[in-house]
Write a structure and sequence with these properties.
With 78 residues, this protein is of the alpha+beta class. It contains three helices and three strands; from the N terminus they run βααββα.
């Protein structure tokens, strides 16, 4: 469903119009009664996560959870 609003109403009620568009409504903005623009919701593309898609591309060193060398720890403490 679409609604028509004039430019003045669009300027003063823009946030409310965006809320309506977000809910799926189409808003046509008119100037002197003639349509000049249209606000409509964008399709949101949701990328599906595929479990295991990075398998084999990530390697974790055997000592990744060992304490850091004292020289590096000292750098943090300065």
């Amino acid at each position: 469903m679409s609604a028509k609003v004039n430019v003045h109403e669009a300027k003063t009620q823009f946030s409310k119009l965006l809320s309506r568009v977000e809910k799926g409504e189409e808003i046509i903005i008119c100037k002197s009664g003639k349509p000049i623009a249209c606000l409509h919701p964008l399709e949101r593309k949701v990328d599906r996560r595929i479990p295991g898609s990075a398998k084999g591309t990530v390697t974790i060193a055997q000592d990744f959870d060992e304490p850091l060398p004292r020289s590096i720890l000292n750098a943090f403490e300065q």
